[in-house]
Amino acid sequence: MTASHLEFYATHAISPVRQDITNWQRHVERRHALSMQLGIAPAMLRGRRVVEVGPGGGYNALYTASLSPSEYVLIEGNPAGAAELQENFAKYKVTCTYKVLEQPLESFESDETFDFAICEGVLSGVPNPEQILSKLVELTASGGVLTITCVDHASHFPETIRRLFAQILINAEHSIDDAVKIIDPAMRPHLESLGGMNRRYDDWIIDNLLHPGSIIPLINLPEAVAVLAQDFQFLSSSPRFTQDWRWYKSLVGEEFDFNINAITSYWKNMHSLLDCRFVFPEREEVQNQHLYDSFTEARSFVKRYEETRDTVWIERFTHVMMEIILDVRSFSPEIGQAFTEVVELLQKPNLSASDVANASAFGPLFGRGQQYISFVKV
Predict the structure, then answer these.
(1) Contact by Cβ (8 Å): 335, 366
(2) How far apart are CA 150 and CA 155, in angstroms?
(3) What's residue 2's pLDDT?
(4) Which of 24, 141, 215, 255 has a CA that sits 20 to 30 A from residue 322's CA?
(5) Is the CB of residue 53 less than 8 Å from the CB of residue 105?
(6) One-letter-per-residue 3-state SS of the chain
(7) Which of 344, 370, 376 is nearest to 358 (CA)?
(8) Which conformational region is residue 276 in: left (phi greater than 0), alpha (psi within -120 to 50 degrees), or beta?
(9) Nearest-CA neighbor of 99 among 107, 89, 109?
């Protein structure tokens, strides 16, 4: 994590990534399912050296620790997160050998490499994801596994829209607490419709709609692969959207490349990241690349509105939304209807929290958020 990313949390003395894990068995099942999708059997971590960057309060790290790695190094630069992590590890009586380092990744040095490197929920909130990835390359042993998460402009676009709504409802003078109180009634009905939600709503609002690191440009799978391609090969992802029908005996020499197939599969299926309720037939790569560019442009207008409070950026956002609606209607009338409702709300002279809360078409629309991606260092 960079200093700019950590500054927001440190300034407010928060770690807004808390989870409800009172049902421990359900938490284990979720994390186990994720590992399986990523091609990582639990026994693979037993007796291995593991490093995790940005574990926050350690809720997910508790599962990793339960798999009995020989050494577990956790690098958390946020003091509030590091303190909560220590508390959770003590509360759940973690028995593996572990070390919590309260420092940014950029200052971490190690003479040894790790069998598993984990970087979950970090790259989407930093202005230098390429630098973070390069550091992870150094820390991962040859033959080791690197797991990262990407949040891209498609999977996060519903939250980009919600962020614009939230920013219209508040102003720059509001404190974090006051802003959360104003935004919560608008977003609560949306979040209540999201199955499997186990985060606190106030944390979700802070992390997605208020945190300045959540509106910067995001890194998608092809961009992450481009940074890692020289050292890593794609292993798997969650959600799994790749198919590889090649005969394994042909995957030798120059044909031993899993990254290209992952990138191709991503672009053909990118539109399915837009709404977690649906999986759509593949589209032409160029179609989805054009659509992705529209998401990126619209997102930039939300950022400009936050910076200037000039409504011209809402108008420009609305114009791009009209183009997006024409495209998405070709594969999803439901998303087209939801985005049309968004445009109608943005045209209201005095948008209220109840207007947003009652958005019946848009309210249940959530993207697929983070894509978990595993790689093998070759």
Answers:
(1) no
(2) 9
(3) 43
(4) 215
(5) yes
(6) CCHHHHHHHHHHCCCCCCECCCCHHHHHHHHHHHHHHCCCCHHHHCCCEEEEECCCCCCCHHHHHHCCCCEEEEECCCHHHHHHHHHHHHHCCCCCCEEEECCCHHHCCCCCCEEEEEECCCHHHCCCHHHHHHHHHHHEEEEEEEEEEECCCCCCHHHHHHHHHHHHHCCCCCCHHHHHHHHHHHHHHHHHCCCCCCECHHHHHHHHHHCHHHCCCCCCHHHHHHHHCCCEEEEEEECCCCCCCCCHHHCCHHHCCCHHHHHHHHHHHHHHHCCCCCCCCCCCHHHHHHHHHHHHHHHHHHHHHHHHCCCHHHHHHHHHHHHHHHHHCCCCHHHHHHHHHHHHHHCCCCCCHHHHHCCCCCCCCCCCCCEEEEEEEC
(7) 344
(8) alpha
(9) 89
Q: Is the dihedral of CA 40, 46, 48, 53 positive or negative?
A: positive
Q: Which residues pair with 117 in a beta bridge?
A: 51, 146
Q: Are 150 and 367 a contacting pair, CB within 8 Å? A: no
Q: Kindly give, in sequence order, each residue whose CB lies less than 8 Å from that of residue 130, ignoring residues fewer than 6 positions away.
A: 219, 227
Query: Do residues 185 and 354 touch, judged by C-beta distance below 8 A?
Result: yes
pLDDT, tens digit, 9 for 90 and up, residues 273-330: 999 999 999 999 999 999 999 999 999 999 999 999 999 999 999 999 999 999 999 9
Single-letter amino acid, residue 49: R
* Distance from C-alpha of 354 to C-alpha of 186, rounded to nearest angstrom: 6
Q: pLDDT of 40-86, one tens digit each?
A: 999 999 999 999 999 999 999 999 999 999 999 999 999 999 999 99
Report residue 375: phi and psi, to 5°. -135, 155
Side chain identity, residue 154: A
* C-alpha to C-alpha distances, 333 to 161, 290, 320, 340, nearest whole angstrom: 18, 19, 18, 10
d(CA 160, CA 139): 33
- Which residues, including other chains, have CB under 8 Å from residue 7's CB and lie 6 or more apart? none
At position 163, the amino acid (one-letter code) is R
User: How many other CB atoms are found less than 10 A from the CB of residue 150?
Assistant: 23
Nearest to 223 by CA among 136, 289, 129: 129
Spatial contact of 145 and 264, defined as CB atoms under 8 Å apart: no
